[in-house]
Amino acid sequence: MKFLVTGGAGFIGSAFIRRLLLETPAETVKAVVNFDKLTYAGNLENLLPVRNDARYRFVHGDICDAALVNQTVADFRPDVMVHFAAESHVDRSILSPAPVFETNLRGTFTLLEAARMHKTPRFLHVSTDEVYGSIAEPHDATEDYPLRASSPYSASKAGSDLLALSYFVTYHMPVLVTRASNNYGPYQFPEKLIPLMISNALEGKSLPIYGDGMQVRDWLYVDDHCRAILAVILRGREGEIYNVGGSRALPNIDVVKAILNSVGQPHSLLQTVKDRPGHDRRYALSSEKLMRETNWTATMPFAEGLKATIDWYRANPEWIARVRSGEYQKFYDKNYAGRAV
Ligand code: NAD
Ligand code: TYD
């Protein structure tokens, strides 16, 4: 198959491309085009392990640029489009919602139109459990759970999910949607909880906990997510939504304390800060449909995945320093300034 991957220079997209080119039988993966704008979150360093693979090509572009998207699809003729590109961070979407709506809604529309025009045989839209909003205990959200997005980010993902699914209903386009829980693993930009706390802990900086730290997230190791996406591409049913959860729901404070213990730093580095507005209390997913239909299961135990992640950040201080230089500091100051409680 020929894969057109959007957002392949980001955290999950790059893990997916590395999996395709390094760990998937060569007869399954004929060629991979990575279409990415290289925003603050895009980093071609994440693809160094595959850059010399003759099957890999990079296109620097914006998914909102209809002419370039159409040209790329016309030239490459992908068998599948795997759509990761997004503005992916809730806090940034609160500080600055405009790029979120441009990329996540207009960008998804542009890709769907190109896939429709060129009759792309499969279109996988990568989405998130955040579209369901906060899930009351003891439930785990199934795919038919109501959409109750709380942030500009999650609202834009809910909107793009509906748009993608409407192309299946209206145009009979072969669209599939995956909704994953919080991912963690190597190469994640240090704005999200786990990499931010690991990199701060390694440098002995304070660890900002929003509110009481008892919010629950369902942690999924990034490689488990990438295997799920491949399983849905190969075995999923068109027009269907598949939840991808890690079955490891934990309060934030437990995760952060585990990081401090593993790094060997004192709990006195924990710093309670003002809560995020519209903060969802709990995410928890049922992945029963995905397991039943594709045989997928999450295989990485959380303690082991967290250790592998911490080991990777410890071994890659230059990567952290490079992504944290420049723009990152401005965001950090804007997001965390004036939040002390
Ligand atoms: P990321 O922020 O690490 O990477 C996003 C990538 O998209 C970057 O390489 C960026 O340069 C690119 N991009 C952004 N705007 C673009 C545009 N207009 N045109 C082309 N490229 C653009 O994100 P991630 O964490 O890897 O998430 C990937 C996808 O998975 C997103 O759709 C996100 O909603 C979804 N998702 C993420 C998580 C998570 O925990 N990170 C969980 C569930 C779903
Ligand atoms: P995040 O990684 O931003 O993912 P999401 O909001 O998409 O779930 O945040 C995960 C949880 O960690 C969420 O409950 C917010 C919390 N959090 C903090 O307490 N402090 C922080 O500095 C960050 C970035 C997140």
Structural class: alpha/beta
Q: What is the CATH third-level topology name?
A: Rossmann fold
**Can you identify the CATH superfamily?**
NAD(P)-binding Rossmann-like Domain
Name the average pLDDT.
Answer: 97
Give the SSE string.
Answer: EHEEHEHHEHEEHEEEHEEHEHHHH
CATH domain class name: Alpha Beta
Give the strand content.
15-25%
CA-based shape: globular
What does this structure look like?
It is a single chain. The protein is an alpha/beta fold. Helices cover 43% and strands 16% of the residues. The protein contains 12 helices and 13 strands. A 7-stranded parallel sheet has the order 3-2-1-4-5-6-11, sandwiched between helices. Helix 5 links the parallel strand 5 and strand 6. Helix 6 packs parallel to helix 8. It is globular and about 55 Å long. The site of nicotinamide-adenine-dinucleotide (NAD) has 30 residues, from helix 1, helix 4 and strand 5. The site of nicotinamide-adenine-dinucleotide has 30 residues, from helix 1, helix 4 and strand 5.
